[in-house]
Structures are given as C-alpha cells and as structure tokens.
Amino acid sequence: MNDMTSMVRAVTRVTFLLLSAFLLGWAAAPEYRPYTAGLILGTTAGLVYAHYLSIKVRQIAEMAASQEKRRYSFGFVTRMCIVLLAVMFAIKFEQHISLVATIVGFFITQLLSIFVSIIWASRKKA
C-alpha cells in the first residue's frame, strides 16, 4: 500500500500546481473568472473525491488481508454527494462559477492520476 500512498501524494502535488495555475489565471484574466473559478471548484472536489476513494481502497485491502468476513463498500453515495455538493454550489453561484467548467474540473484529477501513474511506473522501472 505504500506504492498507492506515494502515487496519491504525487497526484496531489501535481493537482496543487494546476490549482495554483488556475488561481493565477483567475487573478490575471477577469473576463475568464467564472471559468477558472469553476475549474478550481471542480478540481478541488475531484481531489477530495480521489483522496476519499484511496482511503476506501486502502481499508478494503486491509480487510482482505485480515480475511474478515464482513461486508464493505467503496462509499459510492458519499463520493456522489461530493460531486453533487460542488455542482449545487456552482448552480447557486452561476453568475460567478461556470457549471460546465466545474464538471470538467472533476475529471482533471482522474486524468492526472493516469498520466502521473504512467510516469511514476516508468521511473520505478528504470
């Protein structure tokens, strides 16, 4: 599980760098503020989503290693509530936050995790 923890940390670092770039874009280009605010909101919710999922995967792996006979879930409802909360926030403040950019922002962390894991695996192999 140490590999998964280090990969989640790498994805978090890259996501924070991207969030800082979005924040600079928000400050530098006032005409695009709703879009960058939506990207910030969606990416933040996607990062929380990814961290929650990694915690659940870690818990299920520990349960499988201990061979307990109990039922366990990935917390699908909780993860959907994270997404729903961000979408509701974007709808509530639709003058200041773009809903489309928020939805796009959800997928940024998941896409980053694919690219970071490929780079991480190639570095580990070498």
TrEMBL record:
It holds the Pfam family ATP-synt_I. Keywords: Cell membrane, Membrane, Transmembrane, Transmembrane helix. It is a multi-pass membrane protein. GO terms for cellular component: plasma membrane. It is found in: Cell membrane. The keyword Transmembrane applies. The chain crosses the membrane at residues 37-55, 76-93, 99-121. The keyword tRNA-binding does not apply. InterPro entries: ATP_synth_I. Its main location: membrane. It comes from the Bacteria. This is ATP synthase subunit I.
